[in-house]
Specification:
The chain has 179 residues and is of the alpha/beta class. It has 5 helices and 10 strands, in the order H-H-H-H-E-E-E-E-E-E-E-E-E-E-H. The chain is elongated.
Length: 179
């Protein structure tokens, strides 16, 4: 029933179809009867993102980054800083997920996660390690924006989660006027 309500809320079925399918769901006696009610529904944008495999970034000797351009955000990101560090920039992505788990390991060079204004981060699952954890975000989460749930360890170099700095904000503003 939840899948049907979500489909109606996202415009994948109309309200008459929703009523009809909910009535059938309430009278169904087997899982097979229920499965038929959602089998033909187009995939929602968020379920497509949820089905993406985890993104694994390994800093190695030279570092690794994702962003600041557009990229597909999976529900799970794993960042191992290694000796070169890892940078994750979510400022230009369109993410329809309610939550993204970022498993960050600061190791020797650290992990930096940049999230747009209006997004929030939950760092309660992080072990600060020796390098520590710096959460420079605000808790002013806008409706419909993802929660970035950080887990992992700060390691020797630490993990930083923040909103864009002044230079990054100028670049974002300049890109918006050109686009």
């Amino acid at each position: 029933m939840e899948q049907l309500r979500d489909a109606a809320a996202e415009g994948r079925i109309d309200l008459d179809e929703l009523d009809s399918r909910l009535e059938q769901a309430l009278t169904s006696k087997t899982y097979a009867e229920l499965a038929v009610l959602t089998a033909d529904l187009p995939k929602s944008p968020s379920s497509a993102a949820e089905s993406l495999p985890p993104l694994v970034l390994k800093g190695g000797m030279y570092g690794a980054s994702r962003g600041p351009g557009r990229w597909d955000v999976p529900g799970h990101v794993i960042a191992h800083a290694g000796m070169g560090g890892v940078s994750l920039d979510f400022t230009r992505v369109e993410c329809r997920l309610a939550e993204v788990v970022v498993e960050a390991y600061g190791e020797t060079s650290g992990v930096t996660v940049v999230i747009p204004d209006g997004w929030a981060a939950d760092t309660t699952g992080m072990d600060p390690g020796f390098g520590g954890l710096k959460d420079k975000t605000t808790s002013d989460r806008l409706p419909g924006t993802p929660l970035i749930r950080l887990t992992g360890s700060g390691g020797m170099a630490g993990v930083v989660v923040r909103h864009p700095n002044k230079r990054e904000r100028r670049k974002l503003a300049g890109d918006a006027t050109r686009g």
